[in-house]
Amino acid sequence: MFRTPLLAVLALIAAAPSTPRPVAGEVPARSNPAIETIHWTYGPERLRSGWATQLRFTHEGMNSRIDADDAPEIMGELVSASSASPGEAVSFRLAHEAGALACTGHADGDRKASGTCRFDPDQRFADGLASRGTPADDSDTLLALALVDARLAPVDGLTTEGYRLDDADDLIAIAALKVTPAYAEELRAAGLRTGQLGDLIAARALKVDAAWLGDMARAGYPDLTIGQAIQMRALGVTPDYAVRMARVLHAVGEIQ
């Protein structure tokens, strides 16, 4: 019912192959090699919501895009570079906890640019994940984690809050959707219990938040369960719609 808002996350998860899970605290004695050729493009794209300027990376079936809010540190450089004369050299670096991308290319005209990147995984990050029982066992998985700016702090915070991350796929999801301990606390403070990480991820994907929960409570639905909140949000139920439906049901009851 609520798969559509998760398509982008699921695409990243599909691109990151599953690997055996070690015992928590066990750190594998291995390193992850660099990925030499990752293709990137920058420029305006037509999305469902309209036109937007996107930085897109592709590599062996993986397709990930980044907008200005996700990487403001390099977007200014790309705006200037894409306005240069066609063929003019372009370079930038994107460094996150999971690793760093060093990218080169050229301007293509019409506010577009393209090129290739080298990705160097961060072994300390990989070891940190393994020690927490959520391994990223290859460079492709670490690349996916880097592109969604995955970090260790949310893993520790959510684990402390009682949420279990089974593997790197879970970390990709919480990073892509910005599922944080603060978000979990926001829902709890609004009266919504979320015991499972999957529920928390689905709620975030569907934009269940304290404001919507408060409006729904005032509309006559004060004690929604996490399942009810997810289903209602997936169906597009708004507080205004809930109020109108309550009036209709009340009127029908009076007639009967």
Describe this structure in words.
With 256 residues, this protein is α+β, with helices and mostly antiparallel strands. The chain folds into two domains: 4-19 and 32-150, no CATH class; 181-255, no CATH class. Helices cover 43% and strands 22% of the residues. The chain has helices at 7-15, 72-82, 123-131, 139-147, 152-160, 168-177, 181-189, 197-205, 210-218, 226-234, 239-255, and strands spanning 35-47, 50-59, 62-66, 89-96, 99-109, 112-121. The chain has a six-stranded antiparallel sheet, sandwiched between helices. Strand 2 (50-59) and strand 3 form a beta hairpin. The protein starts with 6 loop residues before the first helix and ends with a helix. 34% of the residues are buried.
Assign a percent range to the helix content.
Answer: 40-55%
Uncertain runs: 1-25
Number of self-contained structural domains: 2
Major sheet, described briefly?
Answer: 6 strands, antiparallel
Distance between the termini: 34 Å
Global mean pLDDT:
85
The best one-word shape is flat
**Helix/strand/pairing category:** alpha+beta
What gyration radius follows from the Cα positions, in whole Å? 22 Å
Order of helices and strands: HEEEHEEEHHHHHHHHH
